[in-house]
Specification:
Order of helices and strands: HEEEEEEEEE
CATH class of the domain at 22-100: Mainly Beta
Strand content: 35-45%
CATH topology of the domain at 22-100: Immunoglobulin-like
Number of helices: 1
CATH superfamily of the domain at 22-100: Immunoglobulins
Length: about 120
Amino acid sequence: MKVIFLFFTLIVTNLALAQHTTNSIEGKLFDSSNNNESITFANVVVKGLGKSSLTDYRGNYVLKNLTPGKYTLLFSFLGYETKEVTVEVIEGKKKLNVYLETTKALNFDDIKLAVNNN
């Protein structure tokens, strides 16, 4: 009887663990104006949640341990327009590739150079 109970417990435990998945959003960040090159070390932030990630040297990012629901992601990098994307996580992994546009103009009016002739 103990063997049957132990066998049944092991099967139920394995089934429960197999059903457990980590919800995540992952994808790649691209430069839309430069032959779709990947953007490295860019910021990916879940708005209002405090979770963030950086893209790796290939432009890949991962946001893990998310509960099912809708999230607004902010993608930003110096020299590019910040992009806001809303995505819904239901169960498991959500794949989301994003393309950023370069900034139209940079404002250098507030930059002042000082020269010390000592």
